[in-house]
């Protein structure tokens, strides 16, 4: 019986390890699609005119992004794994179209250096979230409330254009997404604990990859406000 339990425990840990690895592989693939797409648009005047030449086109892409995130998150259980993966990759592609604007606003060197700062910060906090014994649930709840406040303040500042509020939201955004990286990592680890590799568990891992992808992108954008050199 002990031998059977050991084998079962080993298989469970192996399955969890595989699913966790897939989380980061899917996240990395999505980041690569976003980055390649953004760079391609930044090197194409025709694409820039298509995306940024019309306010309705750019707004439509933003709405499409929000709709895709909501749809995948809300309907993940009813979607097939293949469909969910395709929608995630589609989202990362559209996000690359809209994020190409940063290549028009900031120097390539500062974008690259900020990316590496983001990767290092994200990696450190994700490792902390994975290995810490501390329950981060209360932190996650606090960060979620702060995120709502951040969104409201950001929208208000679009019309107010206050430089002080701009920098407050910048540092608050960094703090929030640094914390969410650790929280989401721990949440994903617990969610995948004891799971076998099935279509359902892979969809759970894919949703985790989407969460970490969003943490990374948002952390990068807020850090770029500080480290980015404008053209």
> How does the helix and strand content classify structurally?
mainly alpha
Question: What characterizes the major β-sheet?
Answer: none
Report the strand count: 0
Task: Output the radius of gyration.
Answer: 19 Å
Percent range for β-strand residues: under 5%
Query: What is the domain tally?
Result: 1
Q: Kindly report how far apart the N and C termini lie.
A: 67 Å
Mean pLDDT: 94
Q: Specify the overall morphology.
A: globular
Low-pLDDT ranges: 1-5
| Share of helical residues | over 70%
Keywords: Membrane, Transmembrane, Transmembrane helix
Membrane topology: Multi-pass membrane protein
Family: Belongs to the BI1 family.
Pfam family, one: Bax1-I
Structure, explained:
The chain has one domain (2-227). 87% of the residues lie in helices and 0% in strands. It is built from nine helices and no strands. The chain has helices at residues 2-42, 45-52, 55-75, 81-99, 101-105, 108-131, 137-160, 163-192, 199-227. Helix 6 packs across helix 8. It is globular.
